[in-house]
Design goal:
With 75 residues, the chain is an all-alpha fold. The chain has one domain. Helix content is 95%, strand content 0%. It is rod-shaped, with a radius of gyration of 32 Å.
C-alpha cells in the first residue's frame, strides 16, 4: 500500500465533500433569494397602501378646496 493508493482511495470522499459543499452553497443562495423576494413583495404592498392613503388625503383636500371655491362663487 503506497502513497499512490491512499491518494486514489480518498478521491471519492473529497468528491462527496465537494458535492455536499456545493449543495450547501446552492441551498443558502435559494433561501436568500426567497427572503429577498418575500421582502420585496411586502415592501410593494406597503408602498401601495401608502400611495393609496396619500392619494385619498389629496383627493379629500382638493374636494374641500373645490367646495370652498364653489361656496364663494355662490355667495
Amino acid at each position: 500500500m503506497g502513497l499512490k493508493y491512499l491518494a486514489f482511495k480518498n478521491r471519492g470522499q473529497i468528491s462527496l465533500e465537494l458535492g455536499v459543499l456545493v449543495l450547501a452553497v446552492v441551498m443558502v443562495a435559494v433561501f436568500a433569494g426567497y427572503l429577498y423576494i418575500q421582502s420585496t413583495l411586502e415592501s410593494a404592498v406597503k408602498i401601495n397602501q401608502t400611495a393609496n392613503g396619500t392619494v385619498g388625503i389629496y383627493n379629500s383636500a382638493v374636494n374641500r378646496i373645490t367646495e370652498s371655491v364653489g361656496n364663494l362663487s355662490n355667495n
